């Protein structure tokens, strides 16, 4: 019992180190994308800005939901529902801005 | 039934049903007066009949909620009620106050009643649902305090469950939200604020929490699904109700003199108010599918499952159709509002009251469930009443649409009485369904007069012989 | 214990946390989605007003707050991973860090509200401010609620109520917090950046 317990725990640690690295990377990407959107907001304007920032926001949303919220491991139906949500909100906003 | 003191719920439930009959009788009279304006005039003018119809509704629902509280709180707390005697005294006080109110409406002209009861000192009378004379309003507060004292003390000395916390908490809310009824300033904008804080606060806020708690309790008992799971659902339903309902009050502020931003806030947040009802449907059917036993009281189960659906239709869907500010601009105060009011009050509150009565009454009469014969009568009553109410709702919706088009949105608007004539056919349909609702109620009441209880052996024998 | 989890698991299939909280999360997302749509459509008939008013916002604060919430979300992920390794204390520390960042968010947001208040800006000022104030205040209340949940979870982690096998509470609270973050990401882009 004692012997067999150490092995999987070691494996678990290696596994979780990978998971942590992945989460850290995601976090850094999110910070980067946010900074990019913010900079763009100060330099670009109009529909170009709207489409770029909206696109970046959807990517950020996808990263948060699938990486942070863990939907990556969930049933595909849930991933689909979330993706549809982000796309719907994005399209409604884009539509309203184009109409203006 | 596990505790002797739960018995005090019985008179509350019986009185509630009695007052329910009274409400329907006044409803039928009011419906006839739509068709013949001088029917029973001057003995019973329309305003008195209308007022009695709506006040009886509130009183019987409160009766049923109080009965439910006295039944559920000891059961959940696993201890006897703090004071059964106080609960019984409170019952008689409340019943007497209700009877005095209705009798004074019927036999004393309203202005004279106001003068007699000190309305000049502290004006409170006249707003819809809150027509009661001042002493009666004070009496309602005292009755509520007595109930709160009793159930809170019971809660404190017994087991603490989420159902009890939500139920007792929402009863406190019910009492506190009644206090703006005493606020009736000269300023009509502020006066309507006070009115809506009570009415909206009750039916689109606090009572939904009571509904959630009662439904949660019934489903825990009947399905045997883990309390932990059911409580989580109830919590998210409570949270969603508050998120949408608190700001949703803005839909009563449109065009009343309140700041213009309420048009946006009221429209958006009241459009969200159907969400808690959708959650209620998801919750109850998920729970039903996960049930771990077949509860013998099928009738109670039917009421419990019917409630979220009809509540969603009446409060959620019919409410949504009229809630957005641009729509409300045209149909404010038409019969469309009455259609929503009827289906919402019946679907959400009358049905949950009948569900808890259906669950508790057999237990209070010393049986787990009624005999199958009695249950069949009860379930027939369910279907007749429910379909009739849908009929009433559709008829009133038709009448409301007629008004909106001919009187409000038309290029060349017609006068009020002309439009009433055009909508006459809908008032006939409504009265017809009103009568069939009354029939359904009688069928339902008939189910209480069968002796004997549900017998597993008998049911099994019958099932096998088929 | 495991029975409770299994009951929901069939429909949820490895959703992190309770099914009930996920239903709630989606309901909340719908709520915010409707608010965003209303903002976008209201803007489409008042473009100039929105553009001019947007310029008065403290964009740096909005940017900082986005970074803060993203980082706190990351801390919550780390808390989750800590508890999966059975490290109760570490889980508590990460959650406390997330709570601290949440507090920072509230502080910055209150500073913005204070500025508006000083300048006499309120819901009646114009349509943009009506949306800006109600959207951000509504989100503010969600941050408060998320922090209450996180505080309860952090307390339970410190007192050792979770383990590597049983930590649904951490996942549930975390999922809600990520939702609050997700909503802010969209809100930031919509209200502070795009013009």
What key phrases describe this protein's structure?
heterotrimer; B: 466 residues; mainly alpha; globular; C: mainly alpha; Four Helix Bundle (Hemerythrin (Met), subunit A); 7 helices
Helix residue percentage of chain A = over 70%
Main beta sheet of chain C: strand number and arrangement?
Answer: none
The N- to C-terminal Cα distance of chain C equals 52 Å
Task: Count every beta strand of chain C, where a strand is a DSSP E run of 2 or more residues.
Answer: 0
**Biggest protein-protein interface?**
A-C, 49 and 47 residues
Structural class of chain C: mainly alpha
Low confidence ranges of chain C:
1-12
Output mean pLDDT of chain A. Answer: 88
What fraction strand of chain A? under 5%
CATH uppermost class of chain C: Mainly Alpha
CATH superfamily label of chain C: Cytochrome c oxidase, subunit III, four-helix bundle
Number of domains of chain C: 1
Explain how this protein is built:
The complex is a heterotrimer of chains A (100), B (466) and C (195). Chain A is mainly α and 100 residues long. The longest helix of chain A is centred in the first third of the chain and has 42 residues, at 2-43. Chain A has 3 helices and no strands. Chain A has helices at 2-43, 46-68, 76-99. Chain B is an all-alpha fold and 466 residues long. Chain B has helices at residues 9-35, 46-77, 84-107, 110-116, 134-157, 162-178, 188-223, 227-248, 261-271, 274-289, 298-323, 325-331, 335-364, 372-408, 416-422, 424-446, 456-465. In chain B, helix 2 (46-77) runs parallel beside helix 13 (335-364), helix 11 packs antiparallel against helix 13 and helix 11 (298-323) packs parallel to helix 14. By secondary structure, chain C is mostly helical. Chain C has one domain (53-193): Cytochrome c oxidase, subunit III, four-helix bundle (Four Helix Bundle (Hemerythrin (Met), subunit A), Up-down Bundle), CATH 1.20.120. Chain C has 7 helices and no strands. At the A-C interface, helix 1, helix 2 and helix 3 of A face helix 2, helix 4 and helix 7 of C.
